[in-house]
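Final report, Chapter 2: Outcomes

The project's central promise was a pipeline that accepts a single protein chain and returns its three-dimensional structure in a standardized token representation, suitable for archiving and comparison. That pipeline is now operational. To close this chapter, we reproduce one record exactly as it appears in the project archive, with the input sequence first and the structure output second.
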Amino acid sequence: MTDRRIRPIAVLALALLVLAVAADAQPRAKVPRLGILSPFSPTALSPGEETFRQTLRDLGYVEGQTIEFEWRWADRSFSQFRVIADEFVRLNVDIIFAMSQPAIQAAQRATTTIPIVMMDVSDPVEAGFIRSLAHPGGNITGVTAIALELSGKQLALLKEAAPGVTRIAVLGTQAILALHGPEVQRVAQGLDVQLQVLVVEGLDDIANAFEHATRRRAGAVLVLPQLLFAVNDRRIAELAAQSQLPTIFWRREFAEVGGLLAYGASQQDLYRRAATYVDKILKGAKSGDLPVEQPTKFTLVINLKTAQALGLTIPPMLLFQADEVLR
């Protein structure tokens, strides 16, 4: 009687053991790897980068279990972009998230098959990254950061903050000036402002540009969107303070490090939307079929401490428009 009872139990135990061994023998599901190419420093994640990670968490991804992050920082060194992009190809990552035009260019040169999610580029069609916003084609999609009308709006905000200014220096590379110049000129005519165009192609040119602006009696400075300026925002804020020139930038971080005004697409929103592209591609969507989105949310940040140091009284209406006022 006892033997009859033990035998079925033993058979059941053996069956369970066989199933367990078979389950362990099954290949584990591949965890997708995301290569993230940032132009900034690796000291800490920026608020935008942390928003990117949190958005993926909210979408159900668990780091180390259902997604792997391969973070790489160029640390303000343009030569590192290509090195990192090539590394991502060797690692066979599933998606590359590239921030800034040089990073996207490096990723594009490195692969035509790995999907690339882009961010922080003014005109991806002009840059040759996609065929059109609606139908990107190829392996690149994502979000643009700069609307061309943004530069005109920045000029108007700068004039509103410093109404007595009649001459404004415009800093940009040849390529960026060609892209944004017509809109800036159009708005300047309506504001009765004379523009002083200063071409900046390298780090040393930034200090020279501020010297020229001061020598030629510019009353304020508009800094056009360009990675060279983004990675040197603190230096630009210092030069603006030394030159006593009200300056407007397109990234919030500029106001944080002492610049007067920052107006541009919300970085938090862009990172959040970029994360949704990663989610869609990992769920089977083809990058070339995902329309590229343009910025829809913009933020104005004013540094009142800097305004006081410049002897400016910011108009109440402008303060009312601000999304954030740093005191």
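Archive annotation: DSSP finds 13 helices and twelve strands in the chain.
This record, like all others produced under the grant, will remain available to the consortium after the project formally closes.
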